[in-house]
């Protein structure tokens, strides 16, 4: 079999090869679960409200609980991609209709461009922490060119991750754990008060990949392999990443990391052979930018299905480099909250409609798939439920607006409430109601026709 046959087809009209096994996908998602800025994310995990630090046990439990919930969502969102052979945004044709799917597609393109540029920024900052004499701009361009190359040969890139990169990442993580855990000051005090927003934050880290999962799972050999690869690989890696981040933040100092999130890189570079192993992690970070740029590419193909994806890859790669050269990242936690609010309820609507109401048997991903306006209602209500129940702060004006809405409708948010779960439950229940009404209407129409 030729390499061309083993690769992603150039347009949506090509048949996707089913070449990724559970180890390929487990390695891909394990690498995606380790993020350089995920280490500084431990700061949000430990103190998501800014005034109620968690105990170490509470933070670690929140990491495990949030990771399992979030990756289960991502894993389930991957299954329709495996079964239909379609990327994520094309799947939304079956949920919302072809033309209405353009709205979430546009949102996904914007957020993936942002994430891609963010990852190039992270890689360049990590590289300058090791090689301070080389300008930031040089590393951005180098990382962007490598990212673009990986995007042109995506399935080959996944196989390289499994065979070579994952081993280096595992060794590096073990090496850093050995030194940082012994050097970090003891984490004392704290409580469980902010447990719910901490879980919210971890879920948001995971579900930010919901719009990406099917883009790779469409090449999975089975639904079980796709789900297992996502949940197993990403959960283990994210728990390890955030857990190690707790100790790195303790060494760097919470104040320093708050002022500059890249300050967390210092403790890694400072350990024996730290520059070598941190360099491995920095090079591995290109899998994050690769996944984001590739998802942008196949999202664009939902809008223009007959355009060669390589053209999109090069154009998006150049644009991502340009953004990373002029944009800094200052609101990482707020960005994650917005992503969770959009894609958690959308996932819940998709999951209920696809798995419960037989969508898997007749999911329409054609270019003329009819609009399904009723599916906007559970998505919108789930979005609102997220902001009514979340306790994670984002932007002051936005948070103030939803505080006013709570007061207007007489709703009091309880400390145990979780935005991601609230959004998912509301969106799922409303989708169930819409589906039952639709089924009842179909039966009445069939009875009328029979008469």
UniProtKB/TrEMBL annotation:
Q: Which residues cross the membrane?
A: 28-46, 52-79, 136-156, 163-181, 193-214, 226-257, 263-283, 311-327, 333-356, 376-396, 416-437
How this chain sits in the membrane, per its record, is: Multi-pass membrane protein
- Show the GO MF annotations: cytosine transmembrane transporter activity
Q: Name one Pfam family in it.
A: Transp_cyt_pur
**The keyword Transmembrane appears for this protein:** yes
| Cellular component annotations (GO), alphabetically ordered | plasma membrane
Localization, per the record, is: Membrane
Which InterPro entries does the annotation name?
Answer: CodB, Pur-cyt_permease
Top-level taxon of the source organism: Bacteria
Instruction: Tell whether Cell cycle is among the UniProt keywords.
Output: no
- Main localization is membrane
Keyword set, alphabetical order: Membrane, Transmembrane, Transmembrane helix
Name the family the entry cites. Answer: Belongs to the purine-cytosine permease (2.A.39) family.
This chain belongs to which protein, by name?
A: Putative hydroxymethylpyrimidine transporter CytX
Q: Which organism is it from?
A: Nonomuraea solani
Q: What is the lineage of its organism?
A: Bacteria, Bacillati, Actinomycetota, Actinomycetes, Streptosporangiales
């Amino acid at each position: 079999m030729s390499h061309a046959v083993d690769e992603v087809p150039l347009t949506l009209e090509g048949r996707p090869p089913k070449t990724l096994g559970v180890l390929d996908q487990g390695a891909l998602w394990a690498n995606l679960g380790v993020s350089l800025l995920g280490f500084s994310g431990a700061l949000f995990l430990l103190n998501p409200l800014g005034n109620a630090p968690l105990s170490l046990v509470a933070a670690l439990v929140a990491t495990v609980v949030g990771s399992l919930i979030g990756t289960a969502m991502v894993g389930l969102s991957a299954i329709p991609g495996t079964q239909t052979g379609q990327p994520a945004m094309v799947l939304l044709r079956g949920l919302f209709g072809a033309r209405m799917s353009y709205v979430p597609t546009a949102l996904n393109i914007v957020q993936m461009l942002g994430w891609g540029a963010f990852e190039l920024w992270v890689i360049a900052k990590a590289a300058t922490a090791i090689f301070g004499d080389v300008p930031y701009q040089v590393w951005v361009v180098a990382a962007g060119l490598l990212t673009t190359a990986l995007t042109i040969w995506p399935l080959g890139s996944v196989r390289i991750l499994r065979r070579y990169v994952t081993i280096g990442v595992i060794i590096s993580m073990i090496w850093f754990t050995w030194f940082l855990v012994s050097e970090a000051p003891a984490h004392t005090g704290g409580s469980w008060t902010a447990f719910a927003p901490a879980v919210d934050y971890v879920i948001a880290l995971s579900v930010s990949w919901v719009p990406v999962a099917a883009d790779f799972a469409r090449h999975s050999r089975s639904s079980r392999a796709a789900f297992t690869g996502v949940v197993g690989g990403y959960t283990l890696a994210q728990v390890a990443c955030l857990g190690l981040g707790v100790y790195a933040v303790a060494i760097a100092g919470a104040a320093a990391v708050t002022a500059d999130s890249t300050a967390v890189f210092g403790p890694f570079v400072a350990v024996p052979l730290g520059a070598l192993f941190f360099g491995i992690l920095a090079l591995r970070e290109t899998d994050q930018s690769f996944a984001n740029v590739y998802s942008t590419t196949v999202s664009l193909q939902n809008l223009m299905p007959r355009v060669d994806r390589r053209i999109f890859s090069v154009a998006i790669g150049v644009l991502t480099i340009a953004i990373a050269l002029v944009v800094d990242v200052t609101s990482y936690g707020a960005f994650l909250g917005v992503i969770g609010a959009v894609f958690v309820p959308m996932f819940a609507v998709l999951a209920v409609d696809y798995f419960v109401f037989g969508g898997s048997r007749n999911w329409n991903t054609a270019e003329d798939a009819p609009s399904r306006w009723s599916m906007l209602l559970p998505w919108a209500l789930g979005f609102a439920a997220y902001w009514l129940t979340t306790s994670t702060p984002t932007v002051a004006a936005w948070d103030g607006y939803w505080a006013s809405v709570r007061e207007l409708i007489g709703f009091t948010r309880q400390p145990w409430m979780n935005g991601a779960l609230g959004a998912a439950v509301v969106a799922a229940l409303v989708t169930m109601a819409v589906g039952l009404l639709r089924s009842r209407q179909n039966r009445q129409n069939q009875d009328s026709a029979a008469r």
